[in-house]
Amino acid sequence: ALGKGSDLEKAFATAALVYNNAADPEGKLSKAETKSLLQTQFWGFIQGQENKPKYQEIISALDEESENKIDFEDFMILLVSLTLMSDLLQEIKNVKTTK
């Protein structure tokens, strides 16, 4: 659908597709499923972040026993939060590309 979309549009479409493929019929993920998805699909951003308080706070919230499920909006907030605190983000910022 976004064959001619911008890189940013394609990135968000990919995030939506990954989420939707893992979500239940109501379009939500359990906290355990969310944690697993982040660990398998977002490893580059979370690797090495285990000692950061914000990372521990996010993962602890996903480890809590709860019936609450994560919707796409909350999932994207998690992605942004993890991205902003990631060491990988700084590496990305240091890379300059030209077109």
UniProtKB/TrEMBL annotation:
This is SNTAN protein. SMART domains: S_100. One of its GO terms (molecular function) is transition metal ion binding. Coiled coil: none annotated. It comes from Grus americana. It comes from the Eukaryota. InterPro entries: EF-hand-dom_pair, EF_hand_dom, S-100_dom, S100_Ca-bd_sub. Residues 50-85 form the EF-hand domain.
